[in-house]
Automatic annotation (TrEMBL):
Keywords: Cell membrane, Membrane, Transmembrane, Transmembrane helix, Transport. The chain crosses the membrane at residues 267-285, 297-317. This is Magnesium transporter. InterPro entries: CorA_cytoplasmic_dom, CorA_TM1_TM2, MgTranspt_CorA/ZnTranspt_ZntB. It comes from Actinophytocola algeriensis. The lineage of its organism: Bacteria, Bacillati, Actinomycetota, Actinomycetes, Pseudonocardiales. Its main location: membrane. Belongs to the CorA metal ion transporter (MIT) (TC 1.A.35) family.
Length: 323
C-alpha cells in the first residue's frame, strides 16, 4: 500500500490519499506531494508515470533496482538513487537498502524494495523539521538524503570502533589469530561495500545543490551544505579506515611470518645440537677399533664429549638468540 502526504504552503494537510488523485492535487500550485511505493509493480509505476509524465529510462531504473548512487536529469524531473546502510556488530558486515526518488518541481516519489529502507525514520525527521516544509520538494529531498547520510556516518563510526578493537589484538599473544584474521577480512569487505555507496554521494548532493535544478531554495541551501559536509567526512573517513585495515592485515601477516621464522630458527638450533650425539654415537658404532674400544672409560669419554659439545652449541645458540 502506497504512503502519501500532501503539504499546502508548508503545512501538512492530508495523508494516505490514493495515488490516483495526484493529478487532481497538482492543479493547485501551493501543494507539494510525496508518494512512497514499496515493492511497486509495473502497474503502480505506469500509473505514476502517466500522472507525472516520467521518462521511460527512469521508470526502467526504478523497476530494476541495484543502481549506483546517481542523479539522472530529464526535462521535467530528476531520478535520484541512494543507499542507506546498517552494520551488524557481531558479523562486522554492512547491508545496504536502495532508495529511488523521482523529483519534479512539486512531487517526490520514493521507490524501495521491501522494508529494508526505514521510511518511517524519514517521516519522523520531516515532522521534526516541519518549519522547513515551505521549501517544498527541497524539504522532502533533504529529509531523505539527510537520513541516508546519517546511516553512512553511523556505520563508519561503528567500523572505526571495531577497527580500534582489532588493533588491540594484533600484538596480543593470547588472541586467536584465525578470529582476528576473520574480523579483519569482514571489516575490509564492509568498508569496500560502504565505499561503493558513500563516495558517489558527493556528486549526488553536489548536483542537487546547483541552482539551475531549482530543487534547493535559499532556505534549504545551508541544510544541503551540511549534508554535503557529512558526505565528505564520511567518504574521507571510509578511505582512511580502508587503508588502516589493509595495514592491520599486512601487520598480521608480518607477525605470522616472524613467528614462523622464530620457530624454524629454534627447531634448526635444536636439530644442530641433536646432530652432535648422533654423530658421536654413529662414529663409535663403527665395526673397527677406536680409542676406548671395549673399555669402560671409552663409554664415559663419548658421553662426556656429547655433553661438552652439545652444551657448547646450546650456549652459543642461546647467546646469538637462536634458541
Amino acid at each position: 500500500m502506497a504512503r502519501t502526504r500532501l503539504y499546502r504552503n508548508g503545512v501538512l494537510e492530508a495523508e494516505d490519499f490514493p495515488p490516483e488523485d495526484i493529478s487532481d492535487h497538482l492543479r493547485d500550485d501551493a501543494l507539494t506531494v510525496w508518494i512512497d511505493l514499496g515493492d511497486p509493480t509495473e502497474a503502480d509505476l505506469a500509473l505514476v508515470s502517466s500522472e507525472l509524465g516520467l521518462h521511460e529510462l527512469a521508470i526502467e531504473d526504478a523497476m530494476h533496482l541495484r543502481q549506483r548512487p546517481k542523479v539522472d536529469r530529464y526535462d521535467t524531473h530528476s531520478y535520484v538513487t541512494a543507499y542507506s546502510v546498517e552494520l551488524d556488530q557481531d558479523t562486522c558486515l554492512v547491508t545496504t537498502a536502495e532508495l529511488g526518488m523521482f523529483v519534479t518541481d512539486r512531487v517526490v516519489v520514493t521507490v524501495r524494495a521491501g522494508d529494508a529502507f526505514d521510511i518511517g525514520a524519514v517521516v519522523r525527521r520531516w515532522d521534526e523539521l516541519s518549519h522547513l516544509a515551505k521549501s517544498g520538494v527541497g524539504f522532502l529531498v533533504h529529509g531523505l538524503l539527510d537520513y541516508v547520510v546519517d546511516t553512512h556516518f553511523a556505520a563508519v563510526q561503528s567500523l572505526d570502533d571495531l577497527i580500534e578493537d582489532l588493533e588491540d589484538t594484533v600484538f596480543d599473544e593470547n588472541a586467536s589469530a584465525p578470529e582476528a584474521q576473520r574480523r579483519a577480512l569482514a571489516l575490509r569487505k564492509s568498508l569496500v561495500t560502504l565505499r561503493r555507496v558513500v563516495l558517489p554521494m558527493r556528486e549526488v548532493v553536489n548536483t542537487l545543490l546547483r541552482r539551475e535544478d531549482r530543487i534547493v531554495d535559499q532556505a534549504m541551501t545551508p541544510y544541503f551544505q551540511d549534508v554535503y559536509d557529512h558526505v565528505l567526512r564520511a567518504s574521507e573517513w571510509t578511505e582512511s579506515l580502508r587503508d588502516l585495515v589493509t595495514t592491520i592485515r599486512e601487520t598480521q601477516l608480518n607477525i605470522q611470518g616472524n613467528r614462523l621464522n622464530l620457530i624454524m630458527k629454534k627447531v634448526t638450533g635444536w636439530a644442530a645440537i641433536i646432530a652432535v650425539p648422533t654423530a658421536i654415537t654413529g662414529f663409535y658404532g663403527q665395526n673397527v677399533p677406536y680409542p676406548g674400544d671395549g673399555e669402560v672409560w671409552g663409554f664415559w669419554m663419548s658421553t662426556a664429549l656429547i655433553l661438552l659439545v652439545g652444551g657448547a652449541l646450546y650456549a652459543l645458540f642461546k647467546h646469538r638468540d637462536w634458541l
